[in-house]
Amino acid sequence: MIVGGIDIVSLTATLMGASTPVLLAATGELVAEKSGVLNLGVEGMMIMGAVAGFAAAVATGNPVLGFAMGAVAGALMATLFAFLTQKLLSNQVATGLALTLFGLGLSALIGKGYEGVRPPPTAKIDFGPLSDIPVLGRILFSHDWMVYLSLILVAVVWYVLRSTRAGLILRAVGESHDAAHALGYRVVAVRFAALAFGGALAGLGGAYLSLVRVPQWTEGMTAGAGWIALAIVVFASWRPWRVLLGAYLFGGITALQLQLQAAGYAIPVHILSMAPYVITIVVLVILSAIHRHGVQAAPASLGKSFHASS
Predict the structure, then answer these.
(1) What is the C-alpha to C-alpha distance for residues 85 and 294, in angstroms, rounded to an integer?
(2) How does it sit in the membrane (predicted)?
């Protein structure tokens, strides 16, 4: 189905892959913020996941190990952030910004030896006859395992936050760390775990960029995806399914601008390049305003340091 030179089926199929890095990072950041911690270092964690995952995949020839190392790198960066903010009680905003700058610089240094190298391919899942279904087969059954894992993670996070004791404790810590501490919950430990999980997902998102989306190592290749993930979490009102919608909106516009360029539309490339970021933010703001009365407020302890003596 082609409309105005744009293959709608191809566009819909492509947006799922294009959305995956941001979806993973935003899902992880949602969990971190639900615990009451604002981590602005998502970009730094993503780029470190990208270079670590790329290096591991190239060294071993195994993309699965690459994704695992990307997750480890992101989790380590998040643990460093957790130590500085939860143990040393440094300012969360300043520390997050520093983490991003640190990640961008360190990844550029590590990645110098990997420029121009191709990683091992990440195979798509073979669904057999399902992949041959007209339209739906190409849209739903033509992706690699990371695309489906990202969707599963959204569902798992939604279920855990809504229906489990672990989710209740996490939300309690995010709403009032003092009350949670008084009830005997280990606030710092909960936040460490939430941050490490969020960092691991950000690292996975970065690894997906360098191993699948591009696939190659390029300095600064996250190109603001971490900041978009942060914005999506806020405008999605800390709800997993709205995060999914926001990420797929960003991925869809990203895929569309690439197809518009390929179709030869006389639109300046700079406008097309910035369109996914601008349109995503504008639409999320509008949706947030429309649903203002039903919007879930930010966790009450978000960005506030916890003092064990309090």
Answers:
(1) 32
(2) Multi-pass membrane protein
For residue 221, the SS3 value is coil
Residue-wise pLDDT tens digits, 113-157? 999 899 999 999 988 888 888 888 888 998 999 999 999 999 999
pLDDT at 9: 82
Q: What is the pTM of this model?
A: 0.92
DSSP H/E element including 7: strand 6-7
Q: Percent of the chain, pLDDT > 90? A: 63
Hunting for tokens 């302890």 — which residue is that? 301
